[in-house]
UniProtKB/TrEMBL annotation, chain A:
Positions of transmembrane segments: none
Taxonomic classification: Bacteria, Bacillati, Actinomycetota, Actinomycetes, Kitasatosporales
Pfam families: CT_C_D
Domain Carboxyltransferase: from-to ranges: 7-200
This protein's name: Carboxyltransferase domain-containing protein
Automatic annotation (TrEMBL), chain B:
Tagged with keyword Lyase: yes
Keywords carried by this UniProt record: ATP-binding, Hydrolase, Lyase, Nucleotide-binding
PANTHER family for this protein: 5-OXOPROLINASE SUBUNIT C (PTHR43309:SF3)
InterPro entries recorded: CT_A_B (IPR003778), Cyclophilin-like_dom_sf (IPR029000), PxpC (IPR052708)
Gene3D superfamilies listed in its UniProt record: Cyclophilin-like (2.40.100.10)
Carboxyltransferase domain boundaries: 26-285
Protein name according to UniProt: 5-oxoprolinase/urea amidolyase family protein
Gene Ontology MF term list: ATP binding; hydrolase activity; lyase activity
Species annotation: Streptomyces broussonetiae
Keyword Ribonucleoprotein assigned: no
């Protein structure tokens, strides 16, 4: 096994590398290092840098073998807790799965929002739909399972939990996450009129700010 | 005033496609773009269009269009009957369509996807640098409906048009070269042998997201979930049923099933033209 190596590079076709890290923290640190090197102009040409849960995909790489050799020699500092852009997401804790999550967390229903909004999250990666960010930061004791049968329609703005992740649905899709709340105006999550259409890009820090009032 | 095309018959699935969106996979935005990129490029070259001029991609049943000015078009890709105001016209070479006439690209007689390129290109507004319809995430123009009006670009030639070019025939049998990885180690050694020795068939459930196959299931040595990771175009993903799916241009940018190998982009044009039932062989390279 190669479990002790900090970085394992896996082949992914003729022009891509899948770089595997031991955990989410070091995946984030490696992603941040890639962005630093790209901004400094010291990263060889890479068309797409796509973080995952434990990996970063480098796609559109003219010479993947050369890049793989370089990466294994990199010194990657841990990411500072205040590194990266920060956003606040207003949320009403009014989701249809509040009772179920309260039971799983063994707290009162009113306590779910207080707990959920007390942590700082970070976008680990995106996928599923444009602007859908997978937010890490919930302690392991609060991880909850998905629904066995996904809902056929989750409204835009719904805030859900699944496993280690929280997320806000940018648009109406099917979905199997436990819905605990609503972002009242989800339009900023994905706005094609902005230079950066996604509000929640990988590496962004997120705080949920509870709004009072009924939907 | 720009020239326009009105959609008379949208067909089962006709979309606007160009070379697709690059550089946004980390936001969950698929690449999209013409599935048979070689056919799109050849059709554009026959018109003197820029190589990335947007075209229409039809699926199995073709489409019919009516320009408000005289235009030159090429219908290529999957072979199909072509008519202008119900009179037979040529396939695979430039055709003159008078103002107000109806160009009909009929059902594919072989293959799956025909392309209708128009001098000047389809000039819908680009989204994130591309005019392509992305069916998975709903970016770009919706699939064509009857009565849609599409703007055309100016027909000033980008290059001297080619006057004749060979169109590849749709594959009677599909051979897909494969490089193992990144998750080939999630499968038994027997699974990789099965993948390169068995004959699979193109499933009728294939679409722009993936070429689904039917055949012997591939057995895994590692069970459980794979944490979500980035997926490349051409990735051969194996869901729990064990049947390989070759990811095409509208594939999701991250996914949670292991990828046993990757088919190079150049081989995917043939995959886009392989009709349901076509035998598929994977070869190691």
């Amino acid at each position: 096994m190669t479990g002790n190596r900090p970085v394992q590079v896996r082949p992914a076709g003729r022009h891509a590398l899948l770089v595997e890290l031991p955990d989410a923290e070091r995946t984030g640190a490696f992603h941040a290092e890639l962005l630093r090197r790209r901004a400094a102009g010291t990263l060889p040409p890479v068309e797409e840098i796509v973080p995952g849960a434990r990996t970063v995909l480098l796609d559109g790489v003219p010479h993947p073998d050369d890049l793989a050799r370089r990466i294994t020699g990199w010194d990657m500092p841990a990411r500072a807790s205040d590194e990266g852009p920060a956003v606040e997401i207003p949320i009403r804790y009014d989701g249809p799965d509040l009772d179920r999550v309260a039971a799983l967390w063994q707290v009162g229903v009113d306590e779910v929002g207080a707990r959920h909004s007390s942590y700082t999250y970070r976008v680990a990666f995106c996928g599923f739909a444009p602007g859908f960010g997978y937010l890490t930061g919930l302690p392991e004791a609060l991880h909850v399972p998905r629904h066995d049968t996904p809902r056929t329609r989750v409204p835009a703005g719904a805030v859900g939990l699944a496993g280690p992740y929280s997320a806000v649905y940018p648009r109406v899709t099917p979905g199997g996450w436990q819905l605990i709340g609503t972002m009242p105006d989800p339009a900023p999550l994905w706005d094609l009129t902005r230079d950066e259409p996604a509000l929640l890009t990988p590496g962004t820090r997120v705080r949920f700010v509870a709004e009072s009032g009924t939907p | 005033m720009t020239a326009t095309l009105t959609v008379v018959r949208p067909g089962a699935l006709t979309t606007v496609q160009d070379c697709g969106r690059r550089g946004h996979a980390h936001l969950g935005v698929p690449r999209s773009g013409a599935l048979d990129a070689a056919a799109m490029a050849l059709a554009n070259r026959l018109l003197g269009n820029a190589p990335d001029a947007a075209v229409l991609e039809t699926t199995l049943t073709g489409c019919a269009l009516c320009p408000d000015r005289a235009v030159t078009v090429v219908v290529g890709g999957a072979p199909c009957p072509v008519t202008v105001d119900a009179s037979p016209a040529a396939w695979g070479v430039p055709v003159h369509v008078p103002a107000g006439a109806v160009l009909d690209a009929g059902g594919a007689t072989a293959g799956v996807r025909s392309y209708v390129a128009v001098a000047g290109g389809i000039a819908v507004e680009p989204v994130l640098g591309s005019r392509s319809t992305d069916l998975l995430s709903g970016l770009g123009p919706a699939q064509l409906r009857s009565g849609d009006v599409l703007p055309l670009g100016s027909a000033a030639p980008h290059s001297v048009p080619a006057d004749l070019a060979p169109w590849p025939a749709p594959p009677a049998a599909l051979t897909l070269p494969l490089r193992p990885g990144p998750r080939a180690d999630w499968f038994t050694p027997a699974a990789l042998r099965t993948l390169i020795s068995a004959t699979y068939r193109v499933s009728q459930h294939s679409n722009r997201i993936g070429l689904r196959t039917e055949g012997p299931p591939l057995e895994r040595v590692r069970t459980g979930e794979l944490p979500s990771e980035g997926m490349v175009l051409g990735a051969v993903q194996v869901p729990p049923d064990g049947r390989p799916v070759v990811f095409l241009h509208d594939h999701p940018t991250t996914g949670g099933y292991p990828v046993i190998g990757v088919v190079p982009e150049a081989a995917l044009a043939a995959a886009a033209q392989a009709a349901p039932g076509t035998p598929v062989r994977f070869t190691l390279r």
